[in-house]
From TrEMBL:
<dbReference type="Pfam" id="PF00450">
    <property type="entry name" value="Peptidase_S10"/>
</dbReference>
<keyword id="KW-0645">Protease</keyword>
<dbReference type="GO" id="GO:0019748">
    <property type="term" value="P:secondary metabolic process"/>
</dbReference>
<dbReference type="InterPro" id="IPR001563">
    <property type="entry name" value="Peptidase_S10"/>
</dbReference>
<keyword id="KW-1015">Disulfide bond</keyword>
<keyword id="KW-0121">Carboxypeptidase</keyword>
<protein>
    <submittedName>
        <fullName>Uncharacterized protein</fullName>
    </submittedName>
</protein>
<dbReference type="InterPro" id="IPR033124">
    <property type="entry name" value="Ser_caboxypep_his_AS"/>
</dbReference>
<dbReference type="GO" id="GO:0016747">
    <property type="term" value="F:acyltransferase activity, transferring groups other than amino-acyl groups"/>
</dbReference>
<keyword id="KW-0732">Signal</keyword>
<keyword id="KW-0325">Glycoprotein</keyword>
<dbReference type="GO" id="GO:0004185">
    <property type="term" value="F:serine-type carboxypeptidase activity"/>
</dbReference>
<dbReference type="InterPro" id="IPR029058">
    <property type="entry name" value="AB_hydrolase_fold"/>
</dbReference>
<comment type="similarity">
    <text>Belongs to the peptidase S10 family.</text>
</comment>
<dbReference type="GO" id="GO:0006508">
    <property type="term" value="P:proteolysis"/>
</dbReference>
<keyword id="KW-0378">Hydrolase</keyword>
<feature type="signal peptide">
    <location>
        <begin position="1"/>
        <end position="19"/>
    </location>
</feature>
Amino acid sequence: MAAAALVIAVLCSFSLVSSAPESALVTHLPGFNGTFPSKHYAGYVTVDEKNGRNLFYYFVFSEGNPEEDPVVLWLNGGPGCSSFDGFVYEHGPFNFEAGNRPGSLPQLHLNPYSWSKVSSMIYLDSPAGVGLSYSHNPDDYTTGDLKTASDTHTFLLKWFELYPEFLGNPFFISGESFAGVYVPTLASEIAKGIQADLKPALNFKGYIVGNGVTDTVFDGDALVPFAHGMGLISDDLYQKVNSACQGSYWNPVNETCMTLLDKVDKEVEDLNIYDILEPCYHRPEIKQVVPNARRLPESFKNLGHTHRPLPVRKRMFGRSWPLRAPVRDGRVPTWPELEHTEVPCTSDEVSSAWLNNELVRNAIHAQPENVVGAWELCSGNINYYHDAGSMIKYHRNLTLQGYRALIFSGDHDMCVPFTGTQAWTRSMGYEVADEWRPWIFDGQVAGYTQGYDHNLTFLTIKGAGHTVPEYKPREALAFYSRWLNAVPI
C-alpha cells in the first residue's frame, strides 16, 4: 500500500511539473552554446482582453529544487525600465559578453551568482509599454502606481493558472529603484486578494526592495546628509545649507536655501550618481578620469570595482539627479525624458543588441519589432502618474499583517541614498530586534544590518551602488539566500 501511494505521488508530481505551457518553453538562446541548468519559459499574459494589454515575462526554474524553492517576481524601476535590466546585468542566469562589433550578437555564459541558484525567478516587463510588454490600445500607456499594481496582480493570478505546480511554493516579490513603489503597492493588492479569497490562492510570504523610492520627504532629504557623510561637500557648506533649509532639502523653504542647494548640486554634478566610487565618463573620448592612476595603491584602484566577470554596461553621465523632486502634478518623468535634462543617460548596447535580434525574439516567444517596437532598457512610451503617495503606510500595513520585508541599500548609491532608507525604516517606530551590526561574507564585513519587530530588516551592502547585484553579485546572492531561508544574515 505504501509503495502504491509513493507511485501515485510520483506520478502526480510528474504531472504537475509537466503542466507548464509547452508553447512557452525556451529551448535555446542565440549567443549561448550549452545546456540550460534549469528549465526556462517565456511569453505573454493578457491582463485586459478588451484592450489587448499584454505583459511579457521570462521565467527561470530554480537550479536547486524547483518543486520546493521559492518563486520570486523581479521588477525593475524607472518608471519605464525593463526587468531585463535585472536579467542581463544583475542576477539572471547568464553573463553577457559584448559582441565583436557594436550591435552584434552578444555571447552568453552561465552566471555563477544567479538568483536562480536558490529560487525560481519571474522577470516581468511592467507596465504595458515597457520592454516587450504592449497594448493594442495606446491609451493604456497612460498609467500610474495603482493601475500598474492592479495589472501585475492580474498577471500573477493568470500566471499561476498557467503554472499551477508552483502554487504551493513560497512566493515573494522583489525589485529595485522605482520598484520601491511597484513592490509594496503590488504586495498590498496580493494581500487584499488573499483576504478576499481570490483564486488561485497565492502563497505570498513577503517582499524585497533594493535602493527603492519610498517617500518624497525621506528620499528628498537624503542626498545632502549622504553627500556630507561621504565627504563630497564641506562641513561649512553642510552647516549653511542645513541651517538655511531647516533640514528640508526636497522642498526649499526660502531663496537662501535654494541658492545653497544649487551649490551642493554643483559640487556633486560630475559624480556617478549610481555609484560614487565608479568613474564618470562625461564624454566618450574620456577613458581615464584619475590622473597618475598607476601610482595609486591597488586597494584604491579597486574601489567601486564589480566582481562580475563581464561588466558590460557602459554608463555616460551628464548632471546628477536634481535635489528637488522631479514629480509635477503627480506625473513622474520617464528616464528618457530626464536624460535630456539633469539625469544621466545609459547606453546599454549589449542588452539592446540581444533583445532586438529577430532570432532572440523568436526564441523567447516575444512579438516582433513591427508589433511591440524596438526594445529599450528604459522606455519613454508611458505617461506615468505617482498616485499612491508615500509607501510607508503600505510597508506598515504589510509588516503588521505578518509579511516579511527586506529593505536593502548599496551604500554608495547617490540616486536613492541609504540615508533616506535608513531613516524611513527607523521611522516605522518598531522595536529593534537585531541591533545594528556588521554582516559577514567570505570572512569579511559585507555591510551592516538592523532588524526590527514585525519581520522588517534593513541591510546595507558595503561598496555597492544603485543596482546591488550588478556591483556585488556574490554578496547579493549570499544575503538573498539567507533571507529567503529565514536564517540570520
